[in-house]
Each structure stands twice: as C-alpha cells, then as structure tokens.
Amino acid sequence: MNKKMMFGIITGAVFLFLAFGFYNASKFQSIEIVKSVNIMAPQQEVYDAISNLDNYPQWSPFLAQDTTQKYETKGAAGTVGSQFHWDGNKGKDLGFQEIVKLQPNSFVGIKCDIQKPFKAQPTFDYELKSNGNTTEVTQKFNLKSGIIDAFFLSLFGVKKEMSATNQQGLDLLKNSLEK
Q: 4 vs 10, 12, 16, 25, CA distance in Å?
C-alpha cells in the first residue's frame, strides 16, 4: 500500500471519528439528570440538611470519593449566598457551590462554579415534598456546555458517571438523616 493511500485511509477514519463524535456531542450540550429518594425524616430536618452547607460534608459524594479534600463554608449558614468551597484530588479539583434560591422547607437552588479539572457551572435544584412519615427529595442537575466540552463529555461517558455520583449523594443524604 502506498503512502498516499495510507494517508487517505487515516484521514478518512479521523474525519469519520470526529464527525460521529461531534454529532453525539450535540446531545450533550445540555445535560439534565433527575434523581429522587425518599427519606424517613421530617421535611424540615431534610430541608435544614440541604440548605445549610455546613452539613454538606455529611452527604457529599465528592468528599466520600476523596476523603483528603479540603473544604470551607463562607457566609451565613442556611441563607442565599452561603458557599461551600472545595480543593481536592491533590489540587486537581477546585471550585465552590453557592445557594442561590431558598423556599422554606420545599426548595433549595444551588449553583456550582467548577474551576478544575474543567470549567463548568452546573446547577442543582432540590425539591422536597412530605409523604406522611417520609420526605421525597427530587434533585435536578443541569449542565450546559459548548460543543467542544460536550465532545469530551460524550467521549468519556461523563453523564453516566455524573448520574452515579448524584445518586450516591442522595443515598448519603438519606443515610445521614436516617441514623
């Protein structure tokens, strides 16, 4: 096989890979993951656990995955504007989350500002509903990204990993409140 033919085959394969990758990436420019859990605890107690970021280390899936993570809270606990800052994975993970909206006992809106390992600003919305002796917590995760970031998100299967991490966080929240 001559060099021109080999170059043509490799170029064609790369083109097909990129075309297919960017086609799939278009589906990942907006990711929404919705998870729910029922917790055997009063709605007020569940709301307090979510809205007060001082409680976050008790149910953070990221802290469970990286027990050496450094963190601090800033602002008045349980209020709009309070923040949870993290620095983990030996300096490879860096960012903060901030409470942006509260509706007493029923809703907590959180915006994240991730600096490392990539830049992103996902949101987490928590809706709480009382169901007799339990409180149903529905978490809606949203992430919007550009086509290049979406390409890498799809390439590395990040949505599946994010979904598992979000479920882990809800399971840890449930466990911390049902002790």
A: 10, 12, 18, 31
